[in-house]
Amino acid sequence: MKAVVYDKYAPNDDYKSILSVKEIPDPKPKPNEVVFRVKAAALNYNDIWGMRGQPVAVPLPHVSGSDAAGEVIAIGEDVTNFKVGDRVVSHSNMSCRVCDACTDGREYDCQKRTIWGFQTGPTWGAFSEITHLPEVNVAKIPEGVSFDEAAAASMTLLTSWHMLVGRAKIHPGQTVLIMGGGSGVGSFGIQIAKLYNCNVIATGSPDKLDKLKEIGADFAVDHRKPDWAKEVRQIAKPLGGIDISFDHIGQTHWNDQLTLLKYGGTLVTCGATTGYDAKTDLRHIFFKGTNILGSTQGTKAELEQGLYWMGKKKIKATIDSVYSFENAAEAHTKMLTGKGLVGKILLKP
Length: 349
Fold this sequence. Notes:
alpha/beta; seven-stranded mixed β-sheet
């Protein structure tokens, strides 16, 4: 089968120098595994980290990709909930399933947790014609949801759902600030907040503001402007202030978010694309009783909850563009620059 493979790192982000489409062996299912033909796969920022070899060195040779949707073509002898022909999507949080965290329903806190397609391998990820996963790491795609939509939703919908529903305990009527609303997690964050009938203020670059409103944001603010926080404050004031700030930007906008939160507000974060060395004015934490919550991935049940609402057409995947395996370097470069990017980038065999 064909796969997008690299066998050395590109710390300078020259993806074209390392990525190539190669023939690798077709997978055969272990007793607990599902094998499926990939119809669509989606890019994530961890694909870039993998090619850089930072912050962790990934196995080489490497097939990247944590989001894949496709059709089951084989199952292991111990698989009971899937059959050949089922439409499935990956749940990339691979945990031990037996530790205290896993058996407490917190598989995202498992100390042995790995992210499929990022930390796994060699040559085991979504960017291949055929792939395989344990039965516990695939979910059925609801009727009415396409392979493209499911692939675009896999990790980002799960992450956004866990951030807002699982961690921040969102409830109707709140005012939610979605930082970087044009990203995959941001676009789902907007929709989840609207599903809960919240007021949504989303931020993005100037060329994305109209699109953020199309996705569902009530207000859109250019977070590249020096006074962006002042604009958000003016919008939020008649709404009672910001209850939840949804962050994956990190360093450059961290402390401003803390200043915007109302007393008892919550900042929930899943990443730091602009850097991790953020300045924090502690007065905005202890004096205002601020809740700061970290969030990574989520449970398979949370993924299935999000997919349920996709099947009901209450949440939609925002797909920016689709590339072939042969154009994988171009796709990753677009994700890295982010220029004009709204939603997810897909790769197809």
